[in-house]
Amino acid sequence: xxxxxxxSKRVETTEGTLTILDSITxxxxxxxxxxxxxxxxxxxxxxxxxxxxxxxxxxxxxxIDGNEITAMDEEQxxxxxxxxxxxxxxxxxxxxxxxxxxxxxxxxELKNSPDAKNQATQLLEEVGLKNRITHYPNQLSGGEQxxxxxxxxxxxxxxxxxxxxxxxxxxxxxxxxxVELIFKLNQEHETTLVLVTHDQRLAARCDRVIQISEGALVxx
Amino acid sequence: xxxxxxxxxLWRDWKGGxxxxxxxxxxxxxxxxTSITLFIDRLQGSIxxxxxxxxxxxxxxxxxxxIDALWIAEAKKQKLKISEAITFQSMVxxxxxxxxxxxxxxxxxxPLKGQMGITKAAFxxxxxxxxxxxxxxVWVESRLLxxxxxxxxxxxxxxxxxxxxxxxxxxxxxxxGGMFGVGPRVMMNLADIAQTGIIQPGSRVQYRFMYxxxxxxxxxxxxxxxxxxxSSQQLLGVKEGRPAISKSIERAEKFLMLACLLGVxxxxxxxxxxxxxxxxxxxxYVAVMKSFGAxxxxxxxxxxxxxxGLGVLASLFGAFLGWLTQVGFVWILQDYLPEDLPPAxxxxxxxxxxxxxxxxxxxxxxxxxxLKTVSPLxxxxxxxxxxxxxxxxxxxxxxxxxxxxxWWYGSDLMLALSLMLGGLAAxxxxxxxxxxVLSATRAAxxxxxxxxxxxxxxxxxxxxxxxxxxxxxxxxxxxxxxxATVRTSLVExxxxxxxxxxxxxFLMNISAHEREPLRDHLQNNGIEPHPFYPVVLGRLNSVxxxxxxxxxxxxxxGNEHRRALNLxxxxxxxxxxxxxxxxxxxxxxxxxxxxxxxQEIATRFKLSVGDQMQFTVADQILIATVHSIRSxxxxxxxxNFYFMFPPGLxxxxxxxxxxxxxxxxxxxxxxxGVVRNFPTITLLDLDAVINQVRSIINQVSLAVELxxxxxxxxxxxxxxxxxxxxxxxxxxxxxxxxxxxxxxxxIMGSLLIEFALLGFIAGLLAAVGAELTLYMLQxxxxxxxxxxxxxxxxxxxxxxxxxxxxxxxLVSYRVVKVPPITILRELA
Lengths: 220, 828
What we know:
Chain A is α/β, with parallel strands linked by helices.
């Protein structure tokens, strides 16, 4: 489903070249759940960005469903993201000017889906926010905002869901509820899950844990 | 993405409050230009139709031969209203007395524009009436009655007819141009002309054919008629009819359009800032959409469609608002405006909507270019900014758009270029100056209290945006200062052109021996006459030994080269004359064969200094060399001449004298004595003409005041947009400060100091810029004498501090009102 070969990311700084990721090779199967863990600044988020096709690699290749996204331009990568990828972010990234329903409708609308509204309403029901659909993000608690973000991620009907510290901004209890929700929906929608986390308990829920340190793969 | 979905996105942005300022700025830009152009258009229509009264119609054809019946038929076919008249000179009789009169026979449609004024006794106030005398009666000018010892109701012999004096003429709409008519006016009905037997083949008669109607019909007929005219026939429009008025209108138009332009530029600055802020706030939106698979092309298309949708709606709303404002203007000012304000043309609407679209392309679109380059990775890394390659394009398009608008509104490439280059140079100089002043404030801030320290630190921290903000404030204040000052001096200048005591009576045909007794008579009656100018009649024969047609290479326009000209001499140059080429004579030049020519006639006759002109004066040939060219302020209402000679050259020729004086309306009865004691002199009443000029000047001044009001409004909008553009950052900083325990008083105090200081610096710089701009405008564009403006230097900085301090604190008040957590969460 998702494969990386010798994936590296380097950036030029005033003090010379800085290697953020160094030759990462990974293979994630369909419907597998994988946690990427590591200390702050270890390169987890950079790896997630590269795997999801949000960023360009300095070296190596990323394959999603057998298509090498590292050989694509931004327009083609956007098409792959539209068809196969969903996201959940630590800071939720809900659009403040849109209601919960409109936020969830967004991915389907980008695909010109005629059924965007019904689908979004149903997803919000699934995440338990049936009564909050007309609320704006600033009228929702952190946990509720993350539920909207999860509903939005599944609205794209992704084959892979990338989650970047999905519980990082939440208290333990709310975080646990969110984790439950992600895994439940992941199972129902038969999605491959790649999540970046500090949270060992969350990592333990996954089929596999990948640890990164200073840009290199430590264990798999 | 389908159009409907894109429109749904627009609606959501609107609901979310993201588009308010953008919409308002665009709508205001369109509203300013629409309301002002609509108002000017209607006012101009009214001024022109008022001016049409000067020739009694929209167009006037003057011909020494009868008007071709075919032309009249064609005018009727074009649905024009027509009127015919005949003017000629003839003796009129009463008992055993006779007088040479200027006769005018008019038909029942006369006058097509303007109104006649009549009364029942000489030199009394008249009432308006919209027709001429009926068959069987004559209306006469006041001075005829004492001269012939008659009163209303008596009989007057005109040729072989006896006609009843039905009224005294106090105003004749198309008399304005005929200042040098010799005899008093006697007006009769055209139907009585045949009976008088005066007009015989070969009689010296002018046939006047007047017509009025819709602009397009008028234009069509005039174009049809013009090629059919011979050189002795003259076609006069409103502008040709009264050069003094057309000049006032042109000057006003220039000023109003310039003022409009400045208003729109300000709204455009507000628009550019609102658009920039909108785009900055869209970065995350775009990143999220891109992470969900939206391509750059789709992003581009989405935002362009949204902005076009917004642009169209804002332009339409702005045009409606402009119309409403204009209706409001007319309603508020109904007492000062003419009742029959004509409807506006289509042009103001087109200008309004086109302005909206130009603003959209030049100021809203450019910042959008950055949006498609926003990286989707921003969903993980908030600090990622777009590469900003579009900066050149953003500024380039903005500058180009401003330039196009300047050029378009002013229809003057040089004016647009000089404004543009001046503006850019000013921005460069101001950037340097602001940086210097900001560095100085840092040192001062170190020693100040904590509110001051906080304010200084905020200004220093945002050096770049503070510089930009000072520049924007400065621009807004500069424009306000310039507009307010130019308006004051322009309005004053206009009103001074025709001061309250401008001469309203002209005395002509004064013989040399009557000069002193007349002056004594006037002074004994408390009237102070202006200088007596000698007038010698002469005809122009040739220029540089070539006939006028040879000299010009074609038949010259007008009939000055054929008719007798009033030649005069003087040792001093009138204050309303200015030498534009050559020099005025010195006492050594007296008696030499020199002359000074008025500028417009010099241009028309292709004359320059050094040319030799030959005249016939009382059967003698006079050759004189052009020594100077003069500009003449004809609207001063003072006596002025096309050709002036030095003293000593024409002294031996028989001369009559010309003078003028001011007489208040209440003293009009004194004129009876003047006419009775000096029956051979000609007295002309110019009260009506002066009143008309004055009313036009008042209307124009009023329009200028209104424009100033509109511009003030857009200036405030710029200030709000500018303050709002830095608001997110301020909210964030102050929310953190409040979280750390800073009191409301501390934060509000520091905000007030920060904004007031920014305003003060901006006002100071605006004063420098305004003084320079005024120097350029007054000396180069409006040709008004430049004077230093001390009020600007006081008003600029203090208005800046007060205005920016007040608006800034007001707009930022939410910083202390909303709980810090809400702001931190909103901006997370």
